[in-house]
Amino acid sequence: MFDQNTRALGQASAAASNWFWNFIISRFTPQMFTAMGFGVYFFFASLMIFSVIFVYFLVPETKSIPLEAMDHLFAVRPVAKANRVVINELRERDESVRRTMSESGMDDAVQLEKARERVGHLEHV
Questions:
Q1: How many whole angstroms separate alpha carbon 9 and alpha carbon 11?
Q2: Residue 124 confidence (pLDDT) above 50
Q3: pLDDT by residue (tens digit) across 66-96?
Q4: Rounded to an integer, what distance in angstroms lies between the CA atom of residue 20 and that of residue 25?
Q5: Contact 83, 63 (CB under 8 A)
Q6: What span, in angstroms and rounded, lies between the C-alpha atoms of 123 and 117?
Q7: Residue 54 to residue 21: CA distance in whole angstroms
Q8: What is the DSSP string of the chain?
Q9: What percent of the chain has pLDDT over 90?
Q10: Which of 41, 60, 70, 80 could form a disulfide with 1 if both were Cys (CB 3.0 to 4.6 A apart)?
């Protein structure tokens, strides 16, 4: 997840990194088979096992998190609970905004009617 100011550069560097590592793997795999034989399979399997452990413990789940809350998601520790913590905080903030709106007399029906008036006004322009 890249900030909008750095998204193009971030995606370009991610694509370049992907191409680079694909080249390295394809370049050196034949030599690895010559030197290690079937041990190459154990090498790549150990990398996959390590990646599962790495992702589980160090990469938070981003499901249902808006882009604006990603920085906060990656700051929450422990990572395994980060998604639930951020979701709960977003729900509390949403409920607080709704409560404030209803206390000030601005309920959803009023907001909907104002939005319809604005759209109707724009259609006539």
A1: 6
A2: no
A3: 988 988 999 999 998 999 999 999 999 988 8
A4: 9
A5: yes
A6: 10
A7: 18
A8: ---TTTHHHHHHHHHHHHHHHHHHHHHHHHHHHHHHTTHHHHHHHHHHHHHHHHHHHHS---TT--GGGHHHHHHSSSGGGHHHHHHHHHHHHHHHHHHHHHHTT--HHHHHHHHHHHHHHHHH-
A9: 60
A10: 70
